[in-house]
Each structure stands twice: as structure tokens, then as C-alpha cells.
Amino acid sequence: MICVMPFRTLALFTVFLLVGGCRSSTQDARPTAAHPNVVVFFTDDQGFGDLSCYGHPTIRTPHVDRLAREGAKLTQFYVAAPVCSPSRAALLTGCYPKRVGMQRHVVFPPDDHGLHPQEVTIAEVLRDAGYRTGCFGKWHLGHRKGLLPCDQGFDEFFGVPYSNDMAQFHRRKGTKYAFHLPLMRDDRVIEWEPDQRALTRRYTDAVIDFMDRAHDQPFFAYVPYSMPHIPIYASDEFRGQSARGLYGDVIEEIDANVGRVLSWLDAHALAEDTIVIFTSDNGPWLPFKERGGSAGPLRGGKGTNFEGGQRVPCVVRWPGRVAESSLCTDPMTAMDLLPTLAGICNASLPEVTIDGRDMGDRLVDLVRLPSGSKAFMATSAKTREDLDEFVFLYYTSKGDLAGIRKGRWKLLLPNELHDVEVDVGEAWNRAAQHEDLVRDLTSLAKELDARIESEARPVHHSDELVFDPRAPKDPNGQPFTMPNERRRAQ
């Protein structure tokens, strides 16, 4: 299977993933197996080893563990970039960031660019199929006119337009940092410098309010939490509770809020009609030590192309379709979510080229097994054959080609070769023993990268401000000044 393929060639998928304001949907029908709700939790800088169901010894995540127990845990799930904005662009469009012009690091407050409004996102695909769509959390794909979530298929938005470190909240009085962080509803600033200790709860409050209003029709809730991106904060209810310290407090608060959403689905008898996915945008920010996370057995973290930078936890639950307590060891990527989700939800795909793959056949062994059964996705001959065809390109945080994985072999350019089925920690460079393979993989990586570059679509630039991050004004139009007593320096 090849990474680059047209939207029209992607088939239906039988078991996987994702889930108003600006614009409204006209369909009024409860979700069904043909049009299930979708909820996607997308945390920020959470490592492969930062959940108890992925082996963390002291962080307690009973609600995400429940998702894994009632669904599938994926052990080789990759994001398309080791930093925020490119990773988010890839998840929402099904494309390598370079294909959609979003490969060059992250969007900063003074930047005028973002994801082009003509790009088709998961939200647009599902909205056109009758779904109500909402984004609740960190956007980070552009914040000028025409670049916000409601310009990209979301009926409503509640959250922040960029990362929580691009703020005054954690900085001391007298800082030379000039920019402020707004909290937005749709395309309006409703608050400047929100208390970051409350963001996880407030995002979840908005998700629940959205579901309360939307549950008579299928809905897609995209929940990109700001945490555990540095600076990390937990509310008073969770601070000091985890044996892992503040970082553990933050993860356990996220988990508790996942539990709030699951409880709502249970209370409204919608659990079986809802696909829930939990994953992360990239690996942990290791230089921050105890305030960063863990990649578990993987090497490296955020900003690197080692496995710890781009292999992240992913749990999928869809009762009655995805077998309970199942394990999927096949490689998959965040880019696969769009074509997969479109197939599940009977949504139409536009005629543009994407890089995601239909992964239904990889999970078919996990579907419709007897109630209470324990499924393990063993490596069959067919799985092995398809593993050998798996191709994935690695790009640096600035969008430069960094490597390629084909089957079990991963090459980091120019000359670092690992069998990541055996050497998951990337400890043993096998390049000297496989010079022909290094040469072949180098050639393939450059060929595929050149093809993507030749087909790349432009990023969008906008001259029109929605807000001025240098000179914020309150809802009454008065200049906003950060009160010193609200600062929470780390």
C-alpha cells in the first residue's frame, strides 16, 4: 500500500474513529450504525508511555483504560509531524503537512498564515453528511480572518487559537514577551489570558453543552486539549494528587474529563452509537524533565523523528464493532483517520489527493466478535504482506525530509537504519549490514517527497486581523492589561 493516493480511490472503512455557532446542519436524525457519532480527544505533547494502559506505573488513567478495555489499543500509531501545527493539519486533512503547505513548524501569534480554507477537513466531510460539528480546545492552524475553525467546517468553536505558552499567564510582570492568549467562541474573543488551571474543565463543559444540543442528530466533537503542553497546570481538585507530580496531575485531570464525556454518552444511551478515539499530537517534550512526559520504551520525544517523537498512544472504542480488549499492532497514521472516518459515516469524499489510507481491512479481525471475547490481532500472512508494503515519510519540525519507514525498516537520513519491529528503542544501527537497503530506501524517500512537493497545495495568507495579540481589547473595546495577581509563573 502506498502513502499517496487520490481521495476517490479510498474505500470504506468498517471500524474506526473520530468525533454549534457558525453554521448549522439541516439533518434531524439520531445517530445510527451508518452515521455514528464521533468524538476525538487529541492531547498536546502526551507521550507514548503516559497512560496506565500503555504501562505507566504511577499515572492513573482509569477512563482511557476503560476505552482500551472496551475497544482497541493501537501500538504503532503515528502522527505526521513531531510538532503541533503540522500534526494537526495532517489529522484534519488526511495529508502530509507538506502537501497542504503547513510543514514549516508551528503558527505563532504574529504569523499571517494558516491552513487554506479550500482544504477539506474531517469536519467538512462529516458536516456535508448531516453531522453537527464542534471544535473544543486548541486550534493552532491559523487565527486571522478566514483561518479559524468555523472557516474549516466546524459549526462552533470554543477554545484558544494557538499554544498556551504563547501567553502572559505564566510570565512574570515586566516580561518582554509581547503577545497575549485569547479564549474564543466561534470567531469572537470572549476573554483574554484565561486561567489555564481551568482550561481542561472548561473545554469539556463546552463539549457536554454541545452534545446536549446536538444529540438528536449525528455529531462530531473534536477535543484538542491544550494540556499537557508546557506550561502545565492542574485545577485545585487535581493538583497534588498524582504520584507522578504535577505532570501526573494534569494527565489524570484530562482522564477524568474524558470520563465525564463517557458518562454523558452512557446516560443518553449513545455509547454504542459513538466512536471514541483518544490520541496525542506528538511525543513528550523531554527537555522539560519532570514537567514533560514519557515515551516509554521509545527513543526521543517531541521535535525529533525518533519513534518517541511521532509514535503516540491511540485507543479506539466502538461497542459492538471494535472488539473489546483488542490489540492492533499494524502501523497506522493520523492521516488515515479522514478516509477511514468517511467510510464509516457514509460521507462523500472530495476529488483531491490525500495521503491517508483506508484501514478497514487491518481491523476487520477486531469486528463483531462474540460479546466478552478477548481479541488479539496476530500477524497473519496477509498482515505480514501488507506490513511489507507500509510506507511512511518522516519530516522534521521545519518540514525537511528526515527519513522513511517501509515495512519493518526505518531509515533516518542519511545513514541510520533500524528494524523497528525488533528494535523499538532504535538502539542498533543496521546500516552497515544493509547498504543496498539504505540506498533503496533513500531513493524511495526522495522520490515520494518530490512527488508530494510537486503536487503541494498552497498555505493561505490573510492580512485581516480577527484580534490583535499585541494590543488586546476586552469585550467592551477597552485595552486589556494582565493583572499581576492573575499571573501564575512556573
SSE sequence, one letter per element: EEHEHEHEEEEHEHEHEEEHEHHEEEEHE
Number of strands: 19
Major sheet size, sense and barrel closure:
11 strands, mixed
Radius of gyration: 21 Å
What is the approximate shape?
Answer: globular
So how many helices? 10
- Mean of all residue-level pLDDT scores: 89
List the helices and strands and how they pair.
Blueprint: E1 5-6, E2 37-43, H1 62-70, E3 72-78, H2 84-93, E4 113-114, H3 122-127, E5 132-138, E6 156-160, E7 182-185, E8 188-192, H4 199-214, E9 219-223, H5 246-267, E10 274-280, H6 307-310, E11 311-317, E12 326-328, E13 332-333, H7 337-344, E14 353-354, H8 360-363, H9 381-389, E15 391-395, E16 401-406, E17 409-412, E18 416-419, H10 435-455, E19 460-461
Parallel strand pairs: 2-9, 2-10, 3-12, 3-13, 5-6, 5-9
Antiparallel strand pairs: 1-14, 3-11, 4-19, 6-7, 7-8, 10-11, 15-16, 16-17, 17-18
